[in-house]
Every structure is written in structure tokens, then in C-alpha cells.
Design brief:
With about 100 residues, the protein is an alpha+beta fold. Helices cover about 20% and strands about 25% of the residues. The protein is built from three helices and four strands, in the order ββαββαα. The mean pLDDT is about 90.
Length: about 100
């Protein structure tokens, strides 16, 4: 099964970087492409994880090669922590992903 950016709904091509966004209290996360991550202004990306407020953490992601030119959905691994964004920024730039997190509660 191919890996898609859950915000922009496009296939992530094998070789392109992709990311997992998680938040405290959620077992999984959402998969997003470099294109989606690049929409976040640099001044909204914090290198320290938030302690006193709801935030969303961005991690590099990896997966084994799948058929064709995409990553395998079944073997995604959360990698290195990259940065955090606050909940307002997440809501603004990731409305589809926000709805996915909301449906998990």
C-alpha cells in the first residue's frame, strides 16, 4: 500500500523525505510530505518540545521500499525529532490532519 501525505492527499514518491506529526496522548500520528512541512514558517518551528501546552511534534520518517515508486505504508518508522509547533499553527497549516486527530478522541 502506498504512502500518501495525509494533509495534501498526494502520493509520497520513494526517495522524497516525509514526516510524522504526533501529539501527547496519541499512539500514532499523521504522515505528511516535505511540501506540507515547508508551508510552516521557520519562526513557528521550535527546537524544544512544549511542556506546558498542547503542541505537535514533527519527526523524520522512514519506510522500506514498496512496489513502484512509493514507500510501504506498513513499515513506517518514526525517526529523529525535528521541531514542535503549537496547536494554533497546526490547526492553520494542517486542517485535514487536525480533523484526523479529532476523530481519534
Amino acid at each position: 500500500m502506498s504512502t500518501y501525505c495525509q494533509e495534501l492527499n498526494h502520493k509520497i514518491t520513494y526517495g522524497d523525505p516525509f514526516f510524522i506529526i504526533t501529539t501527547t496522548g496519541v499512539g500514532g500520528g499523521v504522515i505528511v510530505s516535505m511540501e506540507a512541512i515547508n508551508r510552516i514558517p521557520k519562526n513557528e518551528q521550535f527546537t524544544e518540545q512544549f511542556v506546558d501546552q498542547v503542541s505537535f511534534d514533527v519527526f523524520a520518517a522512514t519506510s522500506s521500499y514498496s512496489m513502484g515508486n512509493t514507500y510501504a505504508w506498513t513499515d513506517i518508522t518514526k525517526g529523529e525529532y525535528l521541531f514542535s509547533i503549537n496547536s494554533d499553527v497546526f490547526s492553520s497549516f494542517f486542517p485535514t490532519c487536525k480533523a484526523m486527530f479529532s476523530s481519534n478522541n
